[in-house]
Each structure stands twice: as structure tokens, then as C-alpha cells.
Amino acid sequence: MSRSTKSSTARPTFVDTSGFYSALVARDDEHERAARLSAGARARHASFITTDYVLDETVTLLAARGHRHLVEPFLRSTLRSAACHVEWTDSERFAKTAAFFTKHDDQTWSFTDCLSFVVMRDLRLRDALTKDAHFDQAGFVALLRRETE
Fold first, then answer.
1. pTM over 0.85
2. How far is CA 96 from CA 1, 2, 28, 37, 56, in A?
3. How many CA atoms are closer than 13 Å to the CA of 66, on its beta-carbon side?
4. Residue 84: beta bridge partners?
């Protein structure tokens, strides 16, 4: 099945952990595509949305894979960016995510995945800069998934 790399018009693109990682780490197998999609979005003045949990996962992944030197510039640029908005988790959103997580206990989705899905549904987002098949399973478009998968 062919997958479009165009974002929905006027809607931001959600950025997941693997999307940030692919964009940041030149040796990642999807680095070029992530960079191309990000550059295209910037050229269209499109925006990005992520969550505090995704930031946590990204920082942890970077450190675990030997890229701790990327953590500070990543956090600084993301938190200061006018193009990337962070959705923060409060007690209401946490409770909504917990209910979503337990409702879908037949899935292997992480709590962070479920928070991402809750945010994406609340904000009516469709596209996610991610390699994570869970986004496709939940009804979203994982922009970095290989077309042969």
C-alpha cells in the first residue's frame, strides 16, 4: 500500500519518539526521510505537536543509545521552538489516558503511546512523524513506516 508523505492541510503533525530520533541521529535508517518531511513542513510553515512523555522517552532513548550530547540541544530547541508545541500532562489528561490504556488492554501499546493517541484524537490530528506501527493500528498515519511493512 502506498503511503502519502504529505501532512493534512492546516493540521499540525504529531512527533513521536522515533520521529525525533530519526531526525536527530544521522545514522538512523529513516534519517533522510525524517529530515525531508521536517524541512517540507517548515517550508509550508506547518507546526508540530508532541507531549512531555514523548520528550521524556526521546531524551532517555538518546542517552541509552550513546547520544547524550544531543539531549541538551534537543531540549533547548524543542522547548523554545515556535513551530513545535508541547502538550503537557495534567491530572485530567492522565486519567483520560489511563482509561484509554485499560480499555485497550488487548493491545501492546505503551502508556506513552496511549497518551499520544489521546492528544491526537483531542486535537484531531492524523499524521505522526514516527516509525511506530502502533500509530497505524490506532488509526493514525505513521509517516516513517516503510511502505513494504
1. yes
2. 33, 33, 33, 31, 19
3. 1
4. 48
Q: At 60, which CATH number?
A: 3.40.50.1010
E strand spans, 19-91: 48-51, 84-87
- Identify which of 105, 131, 107 has the alpha carbon closest to the alpha carbon of residue 17: 131
Q: Is 41 among the domain residues?
A: yes
Q: At what angle do helices 52-64 and 71-80 cross, to 10 degrees?
A: 160
Quick one: the chain helix, strand, coil %, rounded to 5?
Answer: 50, 10, 40
Calpha distance 91→8 (Å, rounded): 30
pLDDT tens-digit readout, 119-133: 999 999 999 999 999
